[in-house]
Amino acid sequence: GGAAFVLLYLLIVLIVCLPVFVAEMALGRNALKSALLAPVELAGTNWYPLGILFFIAPIGILSFYSVIMGWTADTFFHSFFFGLPKDISEAENFFGSISSGSSVLLGHLLSLLLTAMIVSSGIKKGIEKVTRYFMPILFIILLALAIWAASLSGAWEGYKTFLLKFDFAELKNPQTIRNAFSQAFFSLSLGIGIMVAYASYLNKKSNIPKLSFGVASLDTLVGLMAGLITFPIVLTFGLSDAIKASTISTLFISIPTGLGASGLAGRIVAIAFFGLVYIAAITSSVSLLEVPVSSLMDKFGYQRSKSVWLITIFVFLLGIPSALNGRVLETFISVTDILLIFGGFLVIFFMGWVVPRKLDSELNASKVGMKTTRYFKFMMRWISPPIIAFGLVISFFDLLKKWLN
Question: Quick check: 338 and 395 in contact, CB under 8 A?
Answer without folding.
Answer: yes
